[in-house]
Specification:
The chain is mainly alpha-helical. The chain has nine helices and no strands. The chain is elongated and about 70 Å long.
Amino acid sequence: MSELLKPPAVPSAILDFFSSQPDFAAVMGDMSEEFHQRAQISGAQSAKLWYWREAFRNAMALTAREVLRTPFRTAIVAFGCLLAVNAVTALHIAMGVYLFPFRLFWNPWEALPDQSQMNAFLVVQFAASLALGWIAGRLLPGREWALALMYSLVTACVAGIGFTVAVVFWHLRDSFAEVPEALRVLLIWEFAFRLGAFWLGCLWIRRSRSIHSRANDASQSSS
């Protein structure tokens, strides 16, 4: 009966992101063997709970090893991607200023972009972050997960430093309440689109590389 029982799909899918690790097959083999032994001794429910805990423990360990593999290079690539996204954002805003100079410069708090311009701004954020995540993932094969985590950390640090500088030197805290609600929502969505699209680009190339590698292994084993 336990031989027919399969490990939970969700933790298996989480661990599958680390399939490029050199000892991934050994880790999965040991977990599968232990899972079936526990299913025979303690029952299926207990074995599944153990598999969930073990999957997250191994995922954390594999994540730490991937991050520590080349931390400085990963951080440099992540910071470069952040600069590139900011450059695309600045170019998009500059084009908007050039096309609508009076509307954007006359009174920026009252002359906000309309909904179509906001949507276009978010599309640019998503497309640029997705493309850079995909490109960065190709530059750091086997470290896409670490790259996505590092990009999130770098983005949060840069945003925190920028906000601190603005509060200390420009007294942003006193004028933050005057910022329109629509603009605050737009900034929140921009942050979410940036992170989400970059993660999607990194994990997309990681997943495609894993599928390609398994297809090659299957063809070699069949031949």
